[in-house]
Design a protein that fits this description.
The structure is a homotetramer. Chain A is of the alpha/beta class. The first copy, chain A, folds into 2 domains: 159 residues, Rossmann fold, CATH 3.40.50.720; 177 residues, Dihydrodipicolinate Reductase, domain 2. Chain A has 12 helices and 14 strands. Chain A has a 6-stranded parallel β-sheet, with helices on both faces. In chain A, β1, α1 and β2 form a beta-alpha-beta unit. Chain A is globular, with a radius of gyration of 20 Å. The two termini of chain A are 18 Å apart. At the A-B interface, β7, β10, β11, β13 and β14 of A face β7, β10, β11, β13 and β14 of B.
C-alpha cells in the first residue's frame, strides 16, 4: 500500500518495543520498516537479536529485518521514528534525530516537561499537539518531538480528566500498586520482590504530579499552562507482572453522587473515539460495580489493554474515592505512542 | 511454678492459635494448660488435631494435651481464657463463658465496639482497661471480657497514637496492602490472588475508622468517649503471606518537620515498655530512613514481630505521609492478646 | 443452522466448564444449548450463577441460559451431554443419564478404567471409540459413555505415543511439576503453595500409569488390551497457575539419535489432523531446540492450548530424556472433550 | 580467646557470604576478622558495603570491619581464608592465595574436579581430606586448597551416601526443582520466573554426576578414585526463594523395604556428629512419613538449615524412590564450608 506511514522503532527489542512490534504488525496503515537496537545487535536479524516474550510468534515481516543503528542515515527514509528507548539513552539519540529533521514520537522521559514539547495521552489532551506548530521555531529544530507520559501518569490521568470536568478538585491523595514490568524485564530480581512489597519507586513520585498537571494544562496566549492540581502520590511495587493500580482519594467541595461519577467515567470519549482511530478503545474507561474489581489478573484485556478499568467508586463526606487499573505496557506505553501517531495523522501533522 | 497464670485457649489449632501456642511455650509466667478446638477434634491430642505450620516443633507440653470443648466445665480451672476463635463463632461462645464467670481476652470481632468492653492495643490504650471496673455491673456479667482490635487497626493505630499527640490531625487517608494470612490459612485460593491485587477486603473498611477511634478515645465522666478522627480507608489484598502495610496521608494545619515526626515515633513508649513486660517490644515503633523500607519480606522480625516499622516519612504542604508495616498475626493478633494479659496482671485485674 | 449438534454441559460453572463454554461459543457446528450446575444454582441465569474467570465476556448466547438440573428431563433434547463434573459427583449422575439413553462425553474419573468404556485422547487413541460398538450390549445401557483421561495422563501420553512407535521402551521415569489449577479453582490456598513445592498430589500417581497404558492399548479379539509400559511417576505441585510439565526419562535398548526423536515428535499427526477437525491443533506436538523451553509462562498458547510442547530432548547411554508441557485445562480437559466429540461425529457415532 | 581460629572471607557481601558472616558471628572458636569484596568496595566499612538481607542486624564485630582486597597482603595474618567468591572470579584469586601459602576453603567451582583437591561434603566424605597430605608436593603449592561441592550435589549426596551402603545401585534418575537463590540474589528477574518453571539450569547437569561421584570415591593406592554411579539428572528452576528439592529414582537389583531405607537414612551419622562439631546437625537426615513432605516453605529450618529432609520413600519393582530437600545456601554452601573447617581443625590439618 503506497499510502502507508513508514516508521522505524528505537529500542525495538525491549519489552515495550516488542509490544509495539506486535501491535504494529496488524496495523491498517502504519508499517514498521526499520528496527533499531543497541550497538552490539546491529546487523543481526531482528529474530536473532530479540529475546521474544510477547505471545505468538515474531511477526514475519519484522523477524527478518536487520537491526539498524540510531543514526539519522538509518532512519532517513521513514516518515516517523517511534522510540521505546531506555530513559538514560533517549535524550541524546532522540534530540540528534529531531535536529536532523525527523519526527520522533517517544515514550522516554527526557523532554517530557519541556514547555515546547507536547506530552500526549491522546484521549486526555490530544489538543496539546498544537504545540508542534510553534516547536520548530522556538527550538530551532528541523523535525518534531512528541512525548508520551510515564506509564503511571498515563493511567491515572484517564479518570482524572473527566472528573476534573465534573467537580472542583481541592486535593488528590494517590497510592499506586505498580507491576514489576514497569521497571523493565530485568528491573527487579525475583529475590527482591517475590512475596514482598517495596513502598518506593525511584523517581516516580516526582514525575506523577508534574506530568498529570502538564497533561491537564490549557493553552493561554499560545502557551501551554500546566494545571495546578494538588497531588500527593505514594508509589509502591507489588509482585504482579503487568498492571498498575492506583487508589485515588479526591477531596472536593462539590456534591456529586457515585452514579454521576460512574456515568461521567463510563461515557468518557475523546477525539480517538470520535474519529474511530484503529488503536483507540471504543470505551477508554470501563466502570465496575462489583466491589472486588478491578484486578490485574483479570481486567487488563479490554480493547487489547487500551482501556483502563475503574472500580470502588464511593463518595462520602467531601471525598470521592476510586480505584483505577491499566496495562502499563499498552495503555501506559506502547499503545499510546501508536495512538498518538494516529491522532497526528488524523490532524495532518505530517 | 505455683504462681503461674493458667490459661486456656479457644481456637488453638488455627493460624493465630498456633502462634499463641508457640509464644506461650516460652512465657515466664503464663502457662497454657487447656486447648480447645472445633467439636470434631475434641478428645484428640493437640498434636493429632493440628496441622502445625509454625516454625519448629509443637511445644512439648502442648503436643500431648487433649482438645477440650468451649464449655465452662472444660475451662473452670484456668485463670483466664484466651480466644483466637473465628469471628462467626466467637459471640455465643465467649459470652457464655463470661456470663459464667470467666475472664476472656479475645481477638474476635464481636463486642469490639460495645461501650462497656475495652478494646485494647496495649501501647496505645492500656488505660481503657479501667472500663473493666464498671463492666460487671453494667453488663450483669460474672466474668470479664476484653477485646483486641482487628489486625489492621492494631498496626495502624501504633504510629497514629504518638502523631495524634504531636499534631492536630484534620483528616487521614489510608490505603492498606494486606497479606493473605489476614483472611485465614484457607481464606484465599492461590488461583485468586497469585500475581494479583484485590482492591477490596470484605468488612475491613468499616472496622478500621471505628476501632481506631475507639482506641484513641478518652474517659469522660466514667465513660469512654471515642475519638472522631476523620479516616478514609481503602483496603487491598496483595500476594504476600504475612505483613500488613498501610500508606497513611495525614492532613494537618500544624507545621512539623520530618525529623520531629521520626523522633516522636522512634521514642514512643508506653506502660508495656515502662514495666518491661515479657512480650513488650523494647521499641514498639522502628523508624527507617532508607526510602525503600519497610518491606514485608524483610522487616517483620523485630522483637519477634511485636514492633511495627515505619518509613517514608515526609512532610510537604499540609500533609504528613508515612508507611507503616506490622506482622498481622503477631502485632495484629496473637501478640497483643498475650501482652494485654500481661498488662492486666501488672495492673491487678486478676 | 439446522445441522448443528446440540449439547448440554454438566458442571458448566467450574473452571473446566467455563473453558468449554468459551471454546464452544466459537464452534462451527457444536451448539451449547443447556447448562447445568449445582442444585442451588438451578433456575438462575448462567451469568448470575457463574463467577466468570475466562478472558473476555461470557458468550452472549450462554449468558442468559437458565441453569438446569442434571436430570434426564433437562437434557432430553440435546444430542450429546458433555460433563465437566467433579469426580465425586460424576459417577451417579453420568450413569443415570447414560442408562436413560444419553450419549455422555466426560472428563470425570469414574469409569475411566472400565474395560467397556473408551478412554480417549483423540490423537493418541481415537481408534478406541470402536469400543462403543459393544458397549450398549455389554453394559445394557441405552446411551453411550466416553471418557477423557486425567489431565496429566492426557499431556504425557502425547509424546509417548509416537516414541513408543519409534523405540522399544523398557521403563519410564516421570516426574511432574503440576499447576495449581489442576486441583480446581479453590483447590489450594495461597498460604499452602505460594513460594513452595508440595511433592505429592493425592491419587495422581495411581492414575497415570493405568490411564496411559489403557490409552496405549490395542484391540485383541474385540477387546481392548492395555499396554504394559513400566511407568514410575512422581507428581509434584508447583506455584504456577496453569500448565503441567513432565520430565520423562525413557530407558531403551534401541539406539536413536536426538534428531530422529525430535522429528518423530514434530511430525506426529493423527486422525484429528488428517480430517482437519475444528479443535485439532495443526501440530499436536511442538518441539523446542532452545534448552530453556518449554515454560508454562510462555508456551501454553499454541493452537489455543491444544498443542503440547516438548524440549530438552537428549539421548545418552540407553536413556532418552525429554520435557513435555501442556495446558491442563485445555489439552488436559476441556479441549479434548470437544475434540473427542468432533471425532465421534466424523466417525458417525451419532 | 587466644586460641580462636582467625579467618578471612572472600565474597563477604554476597548472599552466601552474608550467610557465613551470620553463622560465624556465633561460632565458639572461629572468628571472622577480615572481610573482602569487590574492588570498588575496598576501604568501606562492611555495613556500608553490604546490602544486608539476612535476618537480624549485621553482627556488630563485622559491621565496622573495613573491606579488604583479595591480595595476600590483606590475608597474611589469618589462619584460613574462606571463599564465597563467584565462580568466574574464584580461580585466579584462590590459586594465587594458595600458592602464596594460605589455606583456602572454598565454595566456588574451579578446581572441584582436580584430582589433588578434596571436594568435601563433611558427613559424606570427610576422609577425602587426606588428599591434603599429598597436595603440596603434587601441586607445588605453599598452601592448601579444599573445595565444597555445588549446592545441588551437596544436598543430593546426603541420602545417596547411606543408600549406596545399603543397596547396589544400578542407575539413578534425578529431577531437581531448584530455588531461585541458587542463581544468586540477582540471578533471575521476577519477570522470568514468577508463575513459571524453567526446565534447565546452565551447567548444572554436567556438575551433578561428576561431583557426586567424586564425593563417593575411594582411596586406592594413595589416589582418590571416583565412583561410577550412573546418574541421569534433569535440573529445573521453580519460583521458590530458598530450598533445592530432588526427586530420586534408584534402580537396584536388591530387595529392600521402605522401612529399612527410612531407618538407614534416619540413623545416618558421620564424623561431624560423632565429634559433636559446632555446626554439625545432630541428625543430618530427617525422614518424613507424611506423604506431602518435605516442602521448602516448611522444612528448611532443622538445625539451622544443616539437615536435609527426605520423604516419599517408596520401593516398588526394582525401583527405590525418594524426595530430598535441603537449604541450598546453608547445607549447599555456607554451612558446609564452615563445617569443613571444623573437621579440618578436629583432624589437625592446621
Amino acid at each position: 500500500m503506497a499510502d502507508k506511514i513508514k516508521v522505524s522503532l528505537l529500542g525495538s527489542t525491549g519489552m515495550v518495543g516488542q509490544k509495539m512490534v506486535r501491535m504494529l504488525s496488524k496495523h491498517p496503515y502504519i508499517e514498521l520498516v526499520k528496527v533499531s537496537a543497541s550497538p552490539q545487535k546491529i546487523g543481526k536479524k531482528y529474530k536473532d537479536a530479540v529475546k521474544w516474550i510477547e505471545p505468538g510468534d515474531i511477526p514475519e515481516n519484522v523477524a527478518e529485518l536487520p537491526i539498524v543503528s540510531t543514526e539519522y542515515e538509518d532512519h532517513k527514509d521513514v516518515d516517523v521514528v517511534l522510540s521505546a528507548l531506555p530513559n538514560e539513552l533517549a535524550e541524546d539519540v532522540e534530540l540528534k534525530l529531531v535536529k536532523q529533521g525527523k519526527i520522533v514520537v517517544s515514550n522516554a522521559s527526557p523532554f517530557r516537561m519541556d514547555p515546547d514539547v507536547p506530552l500526549i495521552n491522546p484521549e486526555v489532551n490530544w489538543e496539546h499537539l498544537e504545540l508542534l506548530k510553534y516547536q520548530k521555531s522556538s527550538k530551532n529544530w528541523n523535525g518534531l518531538l512528541v512525548k508520551n507520559p510515564n506509564c503511571t501518569a498515563a493511567i491515572l490521568s484517564m479518570p482524572i480528566k473527566p472528573l476534573e470536568r465534573l467537580i472542583k478538585i481541592n486535593a488528590t491523595y494517590i497510592v499506586t500498586l505498580q507491576a514489576v514490568s514497569g521497571a523493565g524485564y530485568s528491573g527487579l530480581p525475583f529475590m527482591a520482590i517475590d512475596g514482598n512489597v517495596v513502598p518506593w519507586i525511584k523517581g516516580e513520585e516526582e514525575k506523577i504530579p508534574k506530568e498529570i498537571n502538564k497533561m491537564l494544562g490549557k493553552f493561554e496566549a499560545g502557551k501551554l499552562k500546566s494545571s495546578s492540581l494538588e497531588i500527593h502520590p505514594t508509589t509502591t511495587r507489588v509482585p504482579v507482572k503487568v498492571g498498575h493500580m492506583g487508589v485515588i482519594n479526591i477531596v472536593t467541595d462539590d456534591n456529586v453522587d457515585e452514579k454521576e461519577v460512574q456515568k461521567a467515567l463510563d461515557s468518557f470519549a475523546s477525539l480517538p473515539q470520535h474519529k474511530n482511530l484503529p488503536t483507540a478503545p471504543n470505551k477508554p474507561i470501563i466502570v465496575f460495580k462489583d466491589e472486588d474489581r478491578p484486578q490485574p489478573a483479570r481486567d487488563l484485556q479490554y480493547y487489547d489493554g487500551m482501556a483502563v478499568t475503574v472500580g470502588r467508586v464511593k463518595f462520602e463526606g467531601n471525598v470521592l474515592r476510586l480505584v483505577v487499573l491499566g496495562d502499563n505496557l499498552v495503555r501506559g506505553a506502547a499503545g499510546i505512542t501508536i495512538l498518538t501517531l494516529e491522532v497526528m495523522k488524523e490532524l495532518g501533522y505530517f
